[in-house]
Design goal:
4 strands; four-stranded mixed beta sheet; membrane; alpha+beta; about 10% strand; 2 domains; transmembrane helix; DUF4191 domain-containing protein; about 230 residues
Length: about 230
């Protein structure tokens, strides 16, 4: 019993530490977070207490209002923390890959399947919606990367739909904070076994390319890279 209590105490301490860390990080981008949370909590509690006095049960409504206030504050804190996190990640290299890693079950993500010298990059996500290519970088340069990767996907897995998304704030682009929602909105057209088969084919291609012997020095004149089938 003592061990269980110790483990529970350690877990609670870890959660409190995580909440405190999240609050500090959020406050850097959202200076009003403390005032907003206080206003939400006090406001909700005040409403319930006022109703309690009107109906003659201020204690009961006060207790219930306190619980609702804590829940409401937690919801608001979570949303503002998420918004602050996306704001700090916006424009940072690899931000889209970080979002894809947390998209949820049923998706397999592979970061940086294509990249150029300017560090424009394309990530790949595979799920029941098919293959989604997510690009981040200069919108003019990244289009050629997307087109080449999409052509390769259509050649390798022609029976699987391939979607493409460019992360950004410009016209026709998807904001980082909306990336996960965008992927989840794509229609589900593949079954679980089909998703597994698609991942296996793509993984086999990756292994083949990584194990392919590459001659040292300049490529011999007239030599061509083998095309995927």
């Amino acid at each position: 019993m003592a061990r269980k209590d110790t483990a529970a105490d350690a877990a609670n301490a870890g959660r409190l530490k995580q909440i405190a860390l999240t609050y500090k990080m959020t406050r850097k981008a959202d200076k009003k977070i403390g005032l907003v949370l206080a206003a939400v909590g006090i406001g909700i509690l005040a409403v319930f207490v006022a109703i309690g006095f009107l109906i003659g049960h201020p204690v009961y409504l006060g207790i219930f209002g306190l619980l609702v206030a804590v829940l409401g504050t937690a919801v608001v804190f979570g949303r503002r923390a998420e918004r602050a996190a996306f704001g700090q990640m916006e424009g940072q290299p690899g931000a889209a890959a970080a979002v894809l890693d947390n998209i949820g079950r049923g998706w397999t993500t592979t970061p940086a399947v294509a990249m150029n010298r300017s560090q424009d990059v394309v990530h790949r996500a595979v799920g029941k919606a098919g293959i989604v290519l997510v690009a981040e970088g200069n919108p003019n340069r990244v289009k050629s990367l997307l087109a080449a990767e999409k052509k390769k996907m259509n050649r390798i897995v022609a029976d699987v739909p391939v979607h493409d998304v460019i992360v950004g704030t410009g016209e026709g682009q998807v904001e980082l904070k909306k990336l996960r929602t965008t992927l989840l909105k794509f229609p589900r057209v593949l079954t679980g076994p089909q998703v597994t088969a698609t991942n296996d084919r793509l993984r086999a291609l990756g292994d083949l390319m990584s194990n392919m012997p590459v001659p040292k020095g300049p490529m011999p004149k007239g030599m061509r890279m083998p095309k995927g089938r």
